[in-house]
Design a protein that fits this description.
Chain lengths: 401, 180
């Protein structure tokens, strides 16, 4: 066959394969710019009110200073003079609720407000029973001191969380109420979209997730959640990989949204038995194009002894874009989660990140019981400042970079 | 329908989102096809196509008033396919470690013609773009030149060299543009 005919036939083949291909909705830019403008406008207005607010703010700082133990160090530092009082006071409460103003009884118990460019402050709203507790589990350095501890909601400021990470804050009152700070730093939202599933669409941010799913209605005995991406058959490794359970919620970050893609979340118990399942439709057209990070080179440096862990790590890292949670499968054992989120900012230098991850794998493989108190196992890499705590069920609890 | 000539088209001056939507619906599949053959990966191609149309939308006030916005969006795809292809290669290397490369290839969006387009993608960047625009889009040399921002003679040279290389690699007979 001649070249001309071969090329034309190949071209026809491509066109025929797309003849029935659905045309998605026309792309539109994500709403980040609008948010930026809104925040800028509010900030401008707040500057005009700064003088009037300053007195009020000063009184509050003095009140808060009397009980510093309740606040994370960064929050206390911010409230003691480094944060802008006008921004803190005037910026609106972030809530996904678009209905009428909720009553005191029904409005969210927690709210988020930007503190500065990099942080948001978690506030408890008034009118709540003081015996409620908020459990903050965050992979952020900023919230390290307040992570994994119950905080009474009687205090106004619950925690300060970096926006370039994610945190799930659960109000323990018999019902779950997660607040999530997007790992992309582009958006924050605080209420579920439709009951027990929240889907957040973000703007493209190279290397960071653009679609995030939080499953709040997770059974309390779930150990991990399997994620199945329908419509992503070409990326086999991304499907059916577990994500860790955090604060009785599952967080799934998808760096590469597909056009209208169903995602099935399956909760598994400690013995691996499926105990609940839910499905959510991700509409990729709601965000601008996602990016898969190039994750090839970092793994070139890993020792051959950790070869068996590469698959799960790589697949999960694809999903999380180095920005959220990465799971590691150790042989046939439970899945471990390691937050690479903070490492992204802290370990921008690829060589150092490679070396750190390599050491983590090697240590986990060589001695998976580095230290334990009977309930949890902690892996410490002191010279790197990394601590990983995992309970004996293999459930990820805490990781600080 | 696939385009036959971009330069001769008489495009109205359009500015609104509605006209962009119409443009998008009309051109999406052919732009996607171009992206697929230039990147070799359907997912990457969809992302690339979405990116290109998003850029078009953002600049629609200007692009929509051009004589041939179709050429503009194709130029975006052609240019961005270079970096996208590099990234796709890195992904492929990574996926190879997952031993999923075989199934990935089996699920190729362009099936039996994959070998041909793989060889096209092995060509120098400009040659591959010229081949894709010429055979996939069926465009004459002047339209290809307009899209790639080069002269017709340059396109002709790329086309000849690409044909020669492809004929050797595919074991076919090199022919001229008319197929004779």
């Amino acid at each position: 066959m001649g070249l001309e005919k071969t090329l034309r036939q190949s071209a026809d083949h491509v066109k025929e394969s797309l003849a029935e291909h659905p045309i998605p909705a026309p792309p539109r830019p994500a709403g980040r710019k609008r948010s930026t403008i809104a925040i800028g406008a509010v900030t401008t207005l707040s500057a005009a009110l700064a003088a009037a607010l300053l007195a009020m703010w000063g009184m509050r700082v003095s009140d808060l200073a009397s009980s510093p133990a309740m606040y994370a160090p960064s929050t206390a530092a911010a409230l003691s003079g480094t944060a802008s009082p006008s921004v803190e006071t005037v910026l609106p409460v972030v809530s996904a609720s678009t209905g009428p103003e909720p009553s005191v009884e029904t409005r969210p118990p927690l709210s988020l407000r930007p503190e500065d460019r990099d942080d948001v402050v978690v506030y408890s709203n008034q009118g709540l029973p003081p015996d409620l507790e908020a459990i903050v589990r965050a992979a952020a350095l900023e919230s390290a001191s307040s992570a994994n501890v119950g905080l009474p909601l009687g205090v106004e400021v619950v925690a300060t969380i970096g926006t370039r990470t994610f945190a799930i804050i659960t109000v323990v009152d018999g019902s779950l109420y997660p607040l999530v700070v997007s790992s992309s730093g582009a958006e924050i939202w605080s209420t579920p979209d439709n009951g027990d599933i929240a889907v957040h669409y973000g703007e493209r941010n190279l290397g960071f997730p653009t679609v995030e799913i939080v499953w709040m209605g997770l059974p309390p005995d779930a150990s991990y959640v399997g994620v199945d991406f329908h419509g992503l058959d070409e990326i086999v490794g991304m499907s059916n990989k577990p994500v860790p359970v955090m604060a009785a919620s599952a967080f799934v970050a998808i760096p590469k949204p597909y056009w209208h893609q169903y995602v099935t979340l399956t909760a598994h118990g400690a013995n691996g038995t499926p105990i609940a399942e839910t499905e959510v439709l991700v509409d990729g057209s709601k965000c601008s194009a996602g990016r898969l990070p190039v994750v090839d080179e970092p793994f070139d440096q890993l020792d051959a002894a950790v070869e068996s862990t590469r698959g799960a790590m790589l697949a999960q890292t694809y999903r999380c874009g180095f920005a959220a949670v990465a799971s590691i499968a150790i042989g046939d054992g439970p899945f471990f989660g390691v937050s690479t989120d903070t490492l992204v900012d802290e370990l921008r230098e690829r060589d150092r990140r490679d070396a750190l991850m390599s050491r983590i794998y090697a240590a986990l493989l060589a001695d998976p019981k580095t230290s334990t108190n009977g309930e949890t196992t902690t892996y410490t890499f002191s010279d790197e400042g990394v601590h990983i705590t995992i309970d004996d069920a293999g459930r990820w609890i805490h990781a600080i970079g | 329908m696939w385009t036959t000539s971009l330069v001769d088209r008489d495009f109205p001056v359009v500015r609104g989102a509605a006209s962009f939507d119409s443009f998008f619906n009309r051109e999406y599949r052919s732009v996607l096809a171009l992206a697929i053959v230039l990147t070799g990966n359907r997912e990457t191609a969809e992302e690339l196509t979405q990116d290109a149309f998003l850029s078009t939308y953002i600049q629609w006030c200007r692009v929509g008033s051009l004589r041939n916005p179709e050429a503009w969006v194709r130029r975006v795809v052609a240019n961005r396919s270079v970096s996208a292809f590099r990234r796709a290669k890195a992904e492929a290397r990574a996926l190879y470690r997952l031993s999923t490369l075989q199934s990935r290839s089996a699920a190729s969006p362009i099936g039996e013609s994959v070998d041909v387009w793989n060889e096209v993608r092995r060509l120098p960047r400009r040659q591959a773009q010229v081949i894709a625009l010429t055979y996939l889009e069926g465009l004459p040399r002047r339209d290809v030149a307009a899209i790639l921002g080069c002269g017709e003679e340059t396109v002709k040279t790329h086309l000849q060299r690409a044909r020669s290389t492809l004929a050797r690699r595919l074991g076919t007979t090199p022919e001229n543009e008319n197929g004779s």
